[in-house]
Automatic annotation (TrEMBL):
Highest rank taxon of the organism: Bacteria
Sequence ranges assigned to domain Cell wall-active antibiotics response LiaF-like C-terminal in this UniProt record: 128-241
Pfam families assigned: LiaF-like_C
Listed InterPro entries: Cell_wall_LiaF, LiaF-like_C, LiaF_C
Protein name: Cell wall-active antibiotics response LiaF-like C-terminal domain-containing protein
GO cellular component: membrane
């Protein structure tokens, strides 16, 4: 169902869920959230001891309490409303635009892509809630190790001189898009994991990534002296890696 939602809209849904959870903790002193955690503890604890009748009763009561408390959470109610709205909108769309089955052709960009895929000072400061883009002018390269919560990340390697070795880009991000531009003469290894989002890596497109990981290497990566190792992790967002 969430596959139908554009990534940016999905990011806003998760942000709203997080805000509602914080709101419940601050203004309702945890409310149903604390009760759900306690009930969940008893569910787990009694599950290990179901051979006894008494623990079976405890498990049943704790499970019912857990479900009721979870559905009392504002964030869960919001997700239920969103799910119902998506179902209704998809139904209306399907009645107006019936789906047509047709054979899938290879992605055009992959057809034209000729390339086969088989403590020092930081380069920049962390920006948890803001977009980031490398400088438009030339800059000195340093390995990237970035953590973020929300915002887009754009790293252009064409404006720097990469070391005659392995350059490393590591990005762990909650919600937002990542764009990485790599010069043609540099070999690349890419490890990407995502809960929700899309990926376009040198013309190879993955439309929906639902809790999946990708690993690509350019043909001569293992023998090249000048290469880039990219490791990215996203909860919700798209990644694009392409040549410049």
């Amino acid at each position: 169902m969430f596959k139908q939602i554009p990534t940016r809209n999905l990011n806003w849904i998760w942000i709203t869920v997080a805000i509602l959870l914080v709101f419940e903790i601050v203004f309702f002193h945890g409310g149903a959230l604390i009760s759900a955690l306690i009930s969940g503890f008893f569910v787990y604890f009694s599950w290990k001891r179901l051979h006894s009748l008494g623990w079976k009763i405890v498990f049943a009561i704790a499970a019912i309490s857990f479900v009721l408390n979870v559905f009392n959470l504002l964030a869960v109610r919001f997700l239920i409303v969103v799910a119902i709205a998506i179902i209704i909108l998809n139904y209306i769309k399907s009645t107006k635009e019936p789906s047509k089955e047709k054979p899938e052709l290879p992605n055009k960009s992959s057809l034209t892509e000729e390339e086969p895929l088989v403590q020092v000072d930081r380069l920049f400061d962390e920006r948890f809630f803001d977009d980031f883009r490398t400088e438009e002018t030339a800059y000195q390269w340093k390995d990237v190790n970035m953590h973020g919560i929300y915002g887009d990340r754009v790293i252009d390697l064409s404006n720097t001189v990469l070391p005659y070795d392995t350059a490393v880009i590591s990005i762990r991000h909650l919600a937002g898009n990542i764009e990485i531009y790599v010069p043609y003469e540099v070999e690349v290894s890419i490890h990407h994991s995502s809960i929700f989002g899309r990926a376009s890596i040198f013309g190879v497109y993955h439309g929906r990534l639902m809790n999946k990981s990708l690993h690509y290497e350019t043909k001569n990566y293992n023998t090249a002296h000048q290469r880039v190792k990219i490791v990215t992790s996203l909860f919700s967002g798209d990644i694009e890696v392409k040549r410049v």
